[in-house]
């Protein structure tokens, strides 16, 4: 995530500060939000597999962000795009791991 601060020397060019990041291979999208067809949520995966094959559970709240779109169609486009990126990342990780174990 980025935060902005006022830039006194250039008012039309705010200072940006990096504050946080999201690991897309560790998220899931919840596209059905009660009473709001235009909103979806991005959640952090709750049970992540460690290098030893065990699952660790995150105690923090699972919601990373809630996004409201202009329409349900736009929401569905975003959900589909995010899910496709997550699938590609997971597939790439599996491919790299498989190659590592072959060597």
Concise overview:
With 103 residues, this protein is of the alpha+beta class.
Describe, in plain words, how this protein is organized in 3D.
This protein is of the alpha+beta class and 103 residues long. The protein has one helix at 72-102; strands at residues 2-5, 15-18, 27-30, 39-44, 47-49, 55-57, 63-68. The strands form 3 sheets. Strands 3-4-7 form a 3-stranded antiparallel β-sheet, covered by helices on one side. The protein is flat and about 55 Å long.
Task: Tell me the helix content.
Answer: 25-40%
Q: Whole-number radius of gyration?
A: 18 Å
**Overall morphology:** flat
Going by helix content, strand content and strand pairing, the class is alpha+beta
Largest sheet: 3 strands, antiparallel
Number of helices: 1
- Oligomerization state: single chain
- Report the count of strand segments: 7
Observed structural traits:
three-stranded antiparallel β-sheet; 103 residues; flat; alpha+beta
Which secondary structure elements does this structure contain, and how are they paired or packed?
Layout: E1 2-5, E2 15-18, E3 27-30, E4 39-44, E5 47-49, E6 55-57, E7 63-68, H1 72-102
Antiparallel strand pairs: 1-2, 3-4, 4-7, 5-6
